[in-house]
Write a structure and sequence with these properties.
The structure holds two protein chains of two kinds. Chain A is of the alpha/beta class. Chain A is built from eleven helices and ten strands. Among the domains of chain B are: 157 residues, Bacterial phosphonate metabolism protein PhnH (Rossmann fold), CATH 3.40.50; 46 residues. Helices cover 33% and strands 17% of the residues of chain B. In chain B, helix 2 crosses helix 3. Chain B starts with a helix and ends with a helix. The C terminus of chain B is likely disordered. The chains are: A alpha/beta, B alpha/beta. At the A-B interface, helix 3, helix 5 and helix 6 of A face helix 6 of B. Chain B: Its EC number is 4.7.1.1.
């Protein structure tokens, strides 16, 4: 069903529509004139080497950086498409806590390390007004199950978790409020390959099951091959090639993309 | 009024109530702002006081700014009028502004306190000044002050609820017993200073003005009279105050906050009221009318 929905995304209006987005740090270009759209339930991958502007773009999209020019229109649940750059800081923070999720590359940036796993997952519901301890806890445990963390670790602090578990906990903490759009910055960075594979498998399952749209920034082509429906390749702050993931990876047109694809090690 | 008082004290070398008039004006302006936005922490230009930080410099500055020559001052520390901190601060104000002092809660117009709210209910016209060591309730969860200010501005108090969640998860109940966070006027999260949570309900709808001064952090906040102060809790783990099995060994009160006293090195102990004025008043009443009380108990 999902596959056929992806084949003809035209009927659904875009969830996020970016046009002409630029951000520079003084004379240093972060990203320049970026335009694209993400439709509900779609997974967009952004790849490129270090310094190509991927993280700048993601920070601008998720409201952590103010772009120099351009617009970011988001289809809000109750208000329809709104340029999030015109929202007040209060509304933007609220949006980021409810309708969005942000998965950081380093789980330490996205988790409270001195708060138990259950408390980490419960924070978003509590911020939205959940006041029943039993409900918050059972909800948190549901999510721990979904991300394959043993329930006996509910009250343990994330600093005692392995890197892969921390990353899975971070995903659960973000998905508990059922966001419609998740930003992921190198979700598998710093994990060993077998843990990466399990995490990708889990992510793929969750993204398909919940129908959330996701923007995944990574330099790992295997990650986008597995997760992303569409792919954008960035170099020096510009998008140089975009299209369906398989199409871009199997038949790269731009010389830089060809270089990128050919430099993946084959085992 | 204060200028005449200042003249009286000119020969001592101190302005009335130690602080100069400009400083008092500045603090009063902060107090007015704090009263208009209940629970909001107003920054103020805290002055060096002849007292170490942590001993009540914030409370002293607030008291010095609101006290007048006709006021009657009471100072308590952990509920007692005769402990070091209380005695020193009381003597300080006797020296620098010559106001009359009392140990009776009912007679006082200004009460400066550390760690307790008096047991005797406060009335309209009284001012209760709290000494606050750490005014920011969110600082344990969020060390950046730029961020905690935003959290207050947008009423994002989920992080505070997380601390309560952690307590229930680890101890099966909300284990915080003092400095228990409360929402003032349905809007701002406030640290009520390290009073026991036993005293939190007394802040709710209190007829007196409650002022909070933090000297090191240079913040003032306030709870105006008759304002709601709701202690945070969960629906299935409601807010509860401490209870004791026995009664006060000296006055027999079963409703006051009791301190445990170790009486020898073999484990003997007794529980007595922490509020000395409340306890002494009850003992005096019992001594002056022993028959009435006995008759009352029989009936």
């Amino acid at each position: 069903m999902t596959a056929s929905a992806l084949r003809k995304p035209a009927p659904k209006p875009p969830l996020l529509e970016v046009s002409g987005l630029s951000k520079s740090y003084g004379t240093q270009v972060g990203c320049r004139d970026i335009s694209f759209a993400v439709r509900p339930g779609e997974v967009l991958g952004i790849v490129g080497e270090s310094g190509s502007g991927k993280s700048t773009l993601l920070a601008c999209l998720s409201g952590r950086l103010q772009p120099d020019s351009g617009s970011i229109s988001y289809d809000m649940k109750d208000r329809g498409p709104v340029d999030i750059l015109t929202l007040s800081e209060h509304e933007r923070r609220r949006l980021a806590r409810t309708d969005w999720g942000i998965v950081h590359q380093n789980p330490r940036d996205g988790l409270r390390l001195d708060v138990s796993a259950g408390g980490n997952i419960g924070e978003r519901p509590m911020a939205l007004g959940a006041r029943h301890y039993g409900d918050i806890r059972s909800d948190a445990q549901d999510w721990l199950k979904k991300v394959e963390i043993d329930l006996s670790r509910t009250d343990d602090k994330p600093r005692t978790f392995s890197g892969g578990m921390q990353q899975r906990l971070q995903i659960a903490r973000n998905l508990v409020t059922r966001p419609r759009l998740v930003f992921m910055d190198e979700p598998t960075g710093g994990l060993d390959v077998s843990v990466q594979a399990r995490l990708l498998d889990l992510l793929r399952g969750l993204v398909r099951e919940l129908g959330v749209a996701a923007i995944i920034v990574t330099h790992d082509l295997a990650v986008v091959r597995l997760l992303a429906d569409r792919l954008m390749v960035m170099q020096r702050g510009r998008v140089i090639e975009e299209g369906l993931t398989d199409q871009v990876l199997d038949d790269p047109h731009h010389p830089y993309t060809q270089l990128l694809v050919s430099s993946v090690l084959q085992v | 009024m204060t200028t005449t008082a200042a003249q009286v004290h000119k020969e001592d070398g101190y302005n009335f109530a130690y602080l100069d008039e400009q400083t008092k004006r500045m603090i009063r302006r902060s107090l007015l702002k704090a009263l208009s936005i209940p629970g909001y922490q107003v920054p103020f230009g805290g002055r060096e006081m002849p007292l170490a930080y942590g001993w009540g410099t914030g409370g002293i500055q607030v008291t010095a700014s609101v006290i007048g020559p006709d006021d009657v001052l009471k100072v308590i520390d952990q509920g007692a009028d005769d402990t070091t901190n209380a005695v020193s601060i009381r003597r300080f104000f006797q020296t620098v502004c010559d106001v009359s002092v009392t140990e009776s809660t009912a007679e006082a117009t200004v009460v400066q306190t550390r760690h307790r709210v008096p047991e005797t209910p406060l009335k309209e016209g009284q001012v209760l000044v709290y000494q606050v060591p750490r005014p920011e309730p969110l600082s344990r969860m969020e060390p950046r002050e730029t961020e905690t200010r935003k959290m207050h501005a947008y009423a994002e108090y989920g992080a505070m609820q997380v601390t309560l969640y952690e307590d229930v998860a680890h101890f099966g109940r909300i284990a915080k017993t003092y400095d228990y966070p409360a929402i003032v006027n349905g809007r701002h999260l406030m640290s009520p200073s390290p009073i026991p949570k036993f005293d939190n309900p007394k802040m709710e709808n209190n007829p007196a003005i409650q002022l909070f001064g933090a000297g090191r952090e240079k913040r003032i906040y306030a709870v105006p009279p008759y304002t709601s102060v709701r202690s945070l809790d969960f629906d299935d783990h409601p807010f509860e105050v401490q209870t004791w099995k026995g009664s006060c060994a000296l006055c027999g009160s079963t409703t006051s906050y009791l301190d445990e006293m170790i009486t020898d090195d073999r484990g003997s102990r007794m529980f007595v009221c922490s509020d000395t004025d409340f306890c002494n008043t009850r003992q005096a009443e019992a001594a002056s009318a022993p028959d009435d009380k006995a008759a009352g108990e029989d009936a």
